[in-house]
Write a structure and sequence with these properties.
This protein is mainly beta and about 130 residues long. It is about 0% helix and about 40% strand. The strands form two sheets. Strands 2, 4, 5, 6, 9, 10 and 11 form a seven-stranded mixed beta sheet that branches. The protein has a four-stranded antiparallel beta sheet with strand order 1-3-8-7, with no helix packed on it.
């Protein structure tokens, strides 16, 4: 299981932007770029929602309808980091955001995203969008 850690959450005004980052701490054995990586979000009382997915090669990308056109998932090979660029943020985007990876590096999960298809999770980073 590859360890993961998110960062970049903050409080912003509606219409603003944030960039979240997901890395594998240490990264001497695991490389996050060997895995498909997804971004999920969750608010109290609601189901965890998968919002974006990128394949290990970066050639396959998926977005949930709720964020399509506003969010961008990407990789930076030099920094071994997966990003989620969030633009035109809305109050309903407020949530705890998690990055996640499947058990096997070669596995590209089905869409729409299901939490049960992922075994590695970060600790979460809080995003608050004020109206």
């Amino acid at each position: 299981t590859i360890p993961l850690r998110e960062s970049g959450g903050a409080s912003v005004q509606a219409g603003g932007s944030l960039r979240l980052a997901c890395v594998s701490p240490g990264d001497s054995y695991y490389s996050i770029l060997d895995y498909s990586v997804a971004w999920f979000r969750q608010v109290p009382g609601k189901e965890r929602e998968g919002v974006a997915l990128i394949s290990n090669f970066g050639d396959e990308i998926y977005y949930a309808d709720s964020v399509n056109g506003r969010f961008t998932i990407s990789q930076d090979p030099a920094k071994r980091t997966v990003y989620l660029q969030m633009n035109s943020l809305k109050p309903e985007d407020s949530a705890m955001y998690y990055c996640a990876a499947p058990e096997h590096s070669s596995y590209y999960p089905p869409r729409p995203l299901r939490g049960g298809d992922f075994t590695s999770w970060g600790q979460g980073t809080q995003v608050i969008v004020a109206s």
